[in-house]
């Protein structure tokens, strides 16, 4: 039986692993099918303390993994938890067909990309519609072509600015007349001559399903009601994230937006189950806050296990 199982390999998960491993709890971390989480889809991370010149998202995650492994974390690499039973004791996790029993669990499953839900989006995914500029931006189909980014937060600004390396022009479509992004990111975006803002507008349809590739978007100005077509070779959707909490719905208290509800510290509604990072944080959602929450969850788990003795 495991003392502590950590589900997820983003900042929260690896930090929880470093702390529980150093507490001699020999944690088992289940990475999920996208090891490293959302930060691996980011280019340079400029705001994680300790890296004065920034660090690539993937490099940061590999450093954390290395650090967790050094203290004895065991890793179920590329494995996914299919279901959990937190109502029995010990807890049971079904992982790729086998059952793992655990005295305590730290849930740090992060969040996935939100979708627009408009016509053509699903059909043209990977045919010009993508959710990750750093993963796909350099593809030949996007080179020297006009590209569209949708969203108004830090992600959208970061994606738009990254894509200016490859695109002939980047159009940033936002449903308001001001950016939600942090001041520094917003200022950089607005000052970039290769980024054209399209304010007060939403994408109504991604074109063109009949040609089996992205040729443009149909836009609607929500102030005037006018519709228009904008030609582009790619649509990069950066409109936020949805917590990956589906498998915990019948087990833990989860709010209407899908985030795990926390009590004191990292405690969930089930004693012995703790949560950390983007799956339980709708407010800050930063790499460093996820790491901080992972640390809290590890300490809470350690104290919980001590209380069982
Ligand atoms: P976000 O801050 O939640 O912004 C999402 C944006 O998408 C908002 O502008 C929102 O519009 C828009 N949006 C949401 N649903 C939409 C829809 N259905 N159609 C059209 N637009 C829609 O998400 P994020 O940019 O991914 O950032 C998440 C967190 O990560 C934030 O805390 C951010 O600071 C952080 N982050 C930091 C960095 C960095 O510092 N390097 C980089 C990326 C992300 P409204 O404005 O109208 O709500």
Protein architecture, described:
The protein has 309 residues and is of the alpha/beta class. It has two domains: 2-112 and 241-307, FAD/NAD(P)-binding domain; 115-237, FAD/NAD(P)-binding domain. 23% of the residues lie in helices and 27% in strands. The protein has helices at residues 11-22, 57-70, 133-136, 154-163, 183-191, 287-308, and strands at 2-7, 28-30, 44-45, 55-56, 74-76, 81-85, 91-95, 98-107, 111-113, 129-130, 146-150, 169-173, 195-198, 201-207, 216-221, 227-231, 234-237, 241-243, 273-275. Strands 1, 2, 5, 6, 7, 8 and 19 form a seven-stranded mixed β-sheet that branches. The longest helix is centred in the C-terminal third of the chain and has 22 residues, at 287-308. The mean pLDDT is 95. Bound molecules: NADP nicotinamide-adenine-dinucleotide phosphate. Residues 47, 114, 116, 150-156, 158, 175-176, 180, 182, 202, 239-241, 285-286 line the site of NADP nicotinamide-adenine-dinucleotide phosphate. NADP nicotinamide-adenine-dinucleotide phosphate is lined by residues 47, 114, 116, 150-156, 158, 175-176, 180, 182, 202, 239-241, 285-286.
Mean pLDDT: 95
Stated plainly, the CATH topology of the largest domain is called: FAD/NAD(P)-binding domain
Tally the beta strands.
Answer: 19
Helical region count?
6
Assembly status: single chain
CATH architecture of the largest domain: 3-Layer(bba) Sandwich
How much of the residues is beta strand, in percent?
A: 25-35%
Distance separating the two termini: 15 Å
Structural class: alpha/beta
Bound molecules: NADP nicotinamide-adenine-dinucleotide phosphate
Specify the CATH homologous superfamily of the largest domain: FAD/NAD(P)-binding domain
User: What does the main sheet amount to?
Assistant: 7 strands, mixed
**Low-pLDDT segments, ≥5 res:** none
């Amino acid at each position: 039986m495991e003392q502590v199982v950590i589900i997820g390999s983003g900042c929260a998960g690896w930090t929880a692993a470093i702390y529980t491993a150093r507490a001699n709890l020999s944690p088992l971390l289940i990475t999920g099918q996208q090891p490293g989480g959302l930060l691996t889809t980011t280019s340079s991370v400029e705001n994680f303390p300790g890296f004065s010149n920034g660090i690539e998202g993937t490099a940061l995650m590999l450093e954390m993994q290395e650090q967790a492994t050094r203290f004895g974390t065991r890793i179920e690499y590329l494995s996914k938890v299919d279901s959990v039973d937190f109502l029995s004791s010990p807890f049971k996790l079904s992982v790729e067909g086998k059952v793992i029993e655990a005295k305590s669990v730290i849930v740090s499953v992060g969040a996935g990309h939100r979708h627009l839900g408009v016509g053509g989006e699903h059909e043209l995914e990977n045919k010009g519609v993508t959710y990750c500029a750093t993963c796909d931006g350099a593809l030949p189909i996007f080179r020297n072509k006009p590209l569209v980014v949708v969203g108004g937060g830090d992600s959208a600004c970061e994606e738009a600015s990254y894509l200016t390396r490859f695109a002939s022009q980047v159009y940033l479509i936002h449903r308001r007349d001001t950016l939600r992004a942090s001041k520094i990111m917003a200022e950089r975006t607005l000052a970039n001559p290769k980024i054209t803002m399209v304010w007060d507008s939403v994408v109504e349809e991604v074109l063109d399903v009949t040609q089996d590739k992205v040729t443009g978007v149909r836009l609607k100005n929500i102030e005037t009601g006018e519709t228009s077509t904008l030609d582009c070779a790619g649509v990069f959707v950066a409109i936020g994230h949805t917590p990956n909490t589906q498998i915990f719905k019948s087990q833990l208290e989860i709010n209407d937006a899908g985030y795990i509800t926390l009590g004191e510290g990292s405690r969930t509604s089930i004693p012995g189950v703790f949560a950390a990072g983007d799956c339980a944080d709708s407010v800050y959602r930063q790499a460093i806050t996820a790491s901080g929450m992972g640390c809290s969850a590890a300490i809470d788990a350690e104290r919980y296990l001590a209380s069982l003795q």
